[in-house]
Structures are given as C-alpha cells and as structure tokens.
Amino acid sequence: MKRLFAKYLLAPAAFMIVFVLLKPAFMLAYGSLFQGVSFAQKLAAVWHGLSMDLSMAAYLSAVPALLLVVAQFAGPSRWLRRLEKTYYVVVAYVLAGIVILDFGLYGYWGFRLDTMPFYYFFSSPALALASVTPLQMLGGVLALAVLGGLFYACFYYVAVRLPYAPARSITLDRWRRAAVALVLAALLFLPMRGGVTVSTMNVSRAYFSDNMRLNHAAVNPAFSLLYSLTQPDRYRTQFRFFDSKRARELAAPFMADRASTDHTERLLRVERPDIYLVVLESFSAHLMPALGGEAIAMRLDTLAREGVLFDRFYASSFRTDRGLAAIYSGLPGQPTESATKYVGKAEHLPSLAHELRDAGYDCRYYFGGDINFTNRLAYLRAQGFDRIVSDKDFPLSKRISKWGVPDGPVFDRCMADVRDAEGNDAPRFFVVQTSSSHEPFDVPFDAPRFAEGPVRAFAYADSCLGAFVDSLRALPSWERTLVVAVADHWGCYPAPLDSMRARHHIPLVLAGGALAAPGRRISRMAAQPDIAATLLAQLGMSAEAFPFSCNAMDTTRTGFAYASEREAAMLLLPDGEAAVYQVPTEATSGPQQLAEQCKAYLQVLYEYINDL
Description:
Layout: H1 2-29, H2 39-48, H3 50-74, H4 78-109, H5 116-123, H6 125-128, H7 134-160, H8 171-187, H9 189-193, H10 212-218, H11 221-230, H12 244-251, E1 274-280, H13 298-306, E2 308-310, E3 313-314, H14 320-329, H15 343-346, H16 352-358, E4 362-367, H17 376-383, E5 387-389, H18 407-420, E6 428-433, H19 454-473, E7 481-487, H20 500-504, E8 508-511, E9 520-522, E10 526-527, H21 530-538, E11 561-565, E12 568-572, E13 578-582, E14 588-589, H22 592-610
Parallel strand pairs: 1-6, 1-7, 2-9, 3-10, 4-5, 4-6
Antiparallel strand pairs: 2-8, 7-8, 11-12, 12-13, 13-14
Helix pairs in contact: 1-3, 1-7, 2-10, 3-4, 3-8, 4-7, 12-22, 13-19, 18-19
C-alpha cells in the first residue's frame, strides 16, 4: 500500500518540479523586463503561482492515477508500463511545445500563451509563419527535442521509474487496493478545481502584484492555454452585420464626443474631492421611493433626496463582472461574452483608477468575497488599484456568509483606512463592492420590519451604506468628500420584471460635502459606462481613453442608454423609443433605424474588444 501512495504522489510531484522551475527560467529569459525587481518579489511570483501549478499538475496526473487503478488487476504487465511511458513522453513534448511557444511569443504580445496563435495559424498558416526564418524554425525543432527530452527525464526519474506495486492474488485485496486508488484519483478534483471556495481555478488566481510582469511570471502557461481553450473567444466572429465603416457610421451618434467637454455642467465645488465609489450588489430603482419603488433602501433614498439623483440611469448588463467593467472601464456590457475573463484583453481595458492614480489619487478596493471569482483579481490589478482588500484579509470569524464577509465589516475596514489616511495630502479613490444582497441573503441583521430573504438583505446592505456615510460625515474631510453609489445590475427583487427597461433601471446617487448644489434630481439619460467620463469631466480631466463613455453632464447631449442581457441588446432613447435585438433569433423590435443602430453599436463594441 505504501508503494501505491508513493506512485500516486510522485506523478504530480514530477509535474510540479517542472512548473516551478519554469518560473525563474521565464524571468531569466526576460531579464530586461524584471530589472529593479527584488529577489523577494520574484520569489513571491513563484509562490503565488503554486496553486495554478498544482491544478495543472492534477489535470496531468489524472491518467497516471487511473492507470494505478488498472494496475491493481493487471499486475506488473509490460503493456501497462509501455502505456505509462508513452503517456509521459507525449505530455513531455506537448509541454515543451507550449513552453517554447509561450516564451517565444511573450516578447511580442506581452501576455501568456492562449489560443490566439492557433487561431492565426489555422486561419492562414502561410501568413502565420511568414515572419519565421528557416533558422528560427530549425532552432525551434531542436529546442523542442531537447526540452521535451529534459522534461521526460524528470518525469522518468521522479515518477515512472518506480514500478507499480503488485497486488496479492487474493481477489478481495485487489478490489480493496483498486478502491483506494480510485478514491485517490477522485481527490485530484480538488486541486483541479482550485479548492472548495466559490471561485474555481482561473488565470486570475496567480495575480498578486501591481507589476503586471510579475503576475505574468506567476501564471502557468499550460493552464493559461487550457483555460483559453475552455473559454472560446466569440468577439472575432459574432455580430458582424455590416462592413466596419458602415457600422461605425450608424453607431456614431452613441459614441463619445470629446469635442463637447467644454459644455459640462458642474456638480462639484471641489477640484480634487475624495471619491468613495460604492457598488451595490443587485440593487435596482425598485427599492427606492424616490424612483417610484418600495420603501426598502431608505438610507440610499435619503442620500438621493439630499444629494444628486440621476433618475433615468441604467445598468449596462445583467451580471456583476460585466457591470464592473462598465463602471470602471466605461465598457458596455456584452450579451454573450465577458471581456474580463480574457486576461489579455482585461489588461488593456481603459481604467478610471489609472486615470485617477495618475492625477495623484490613492486607489484602493474593498470586497468581502473571493476576489478571484470570474478573474476579478487580474482585472482589478490591471485597473491599477494600489491595494485590494478581500475575504482573505479578514479573520475567519468574520467570514460567516457563503460569499465571505458581510458588508458591515467590509465598510468598517474601509472606514478604518479612511481614518488612517486623514492626515495624507493625496486625494482618495476608495471603492467598496458589496455582496450581502446576493443570494442566499444570509445577513446578520435584526429588522422585524423586513421578512427573511432578499428584502432583508437589501435593507442590511442599505443600512451599512448609511452607517458608512454617517462616519464619513463626522470627519473633517467631509467637505471634500464625494460618495458615488451605484448598482451593478438588477438581481432578484422585485421579480418577475418582464420589461427589459424596468430590469435595467438602477440608481446612481451622488452625496457628500463636495457637491456644489445638493438636493438635485437629474433626468438626463445615462448608463453605467458614462460614469467614467462624467466623473473625469467634473475633475477637469480628459476621458479620451474611454470611447464608449459619454459625459452625462454635457449640456449639448440628450443622452441614451444601452443595455444587454444573455439573449438581447437594447438601445433606449430619452423620448421613450427603444430597439431590442434578440441574439438567438436575430429578430429586432422597435423603429427600424434605431434597430439598425443597436446592431451597429453591438458590432462596434465587439470589434473594439476583439482588437484589444
């Protein structure tokens, strides 16, 4: 039985040795990109990539683990040993090919290997190889032969050389050992998945630094390719209704117009306010009396009446990952894809945090859940947040919900950092993303007025927001404080909402002492992607990097809203006209011209993301 366990453990150990050694090799190969990076930071890249390495090692160890089950009945047969050796030879040379491609292409593309080179090759092999000289091709073949041989030597001496443990002839012993081997094989699912947390293993798990090169060094290239294969990129092929020029002409009225930024109506009396952006999970306009909804989010309702309320504001998407990209990157939501799951694209998205950081802002992010969920960590690192706080930064005693830490302690943590920063000159851009109003709605809130379930969860999140603003109000910096509260999307309440327009109607509320004229209600139509350009215009900063973000306080524009769901995209105009494109059936509804513009807008959006 000891040899069975040893044989089982040596397979992932052999793969881990190769994967760990590849990280310093990568940093050595691209030494010029890591100049000034300390040894401790390089060691951190190796450390933070271990979980992804282990996941890939578990995938590759699945076949050896199943062969171990077969061996309990086959005994020390030659065919089983040949099969084992053949498997390791194939894996060794496949991994060698992946590593050579990854190392060779990184210097040109700046991200770890994904399916893109294969797309180019199979689209046009001649063009894909046009820039490769015969000498380079020969060098690649030789490198493949040598590196594959080295990998196999490692696998052989660590794992293959140990023979299978022969089972006794007793049938019961064979079945017992086979059952143990089968259980061990099943246990590989845990490292494959990346543990038992809400988020499964993804490329984001390795991201730990604001130095993107270090994050790239931590990524396992084989896993990056595998992940890309399981996440097909449909930006290349979907929604090609017109030629590109015609699509841009039709969509032009809905794209950002930088020539009109001089017509911005000022909302602030402070040039560089401290900005606290609160993203409220699953909130909608239907929770606030000020927007014609129910009396549930009453603290937010009070802030809306005291501050500035945008009463014709819309969520751009139906999921949090797309909603966050709309808010932080000015990127409209996509019905069939999420740009943030493609790390290579997410790193090139526009960034509100980057713009503010370049203007001297201290940028921090607070979230009580698993920050790796849907590649969020990689996206936020690329966005340029100086510090990211998530569930792992709280004690276990605080992680009492399915999603991690309830909103109350998260706001408290942010508030503690606000107090610590009170003496600093740098203005703040602190983002708090709530999670308690997500199912299963298990919140630590005693409110007899609200029944169990989503209503209580919304009321709890609302109370946490209210307490946070009360704490800010007590600080000397309140006079330069701007609180921006916005929902990520409509969630579960009230349900059902048959109207797409009603589903996407959400609150955008500005509060704080930095407002020049509080107590305002603004009915100019806008949507989440417009937040970036609107905020930057208020600060007197350029929003040139955000092609889809329009300044909602531009007095020369009437505004519009674009929204998407899994099976539909909608353009909504201030006069009430709306056009909807149905993705599965390709049918449209609404005025014909607006329907054509909706399709063109969708095409321009997908072309833009494809080119990132």
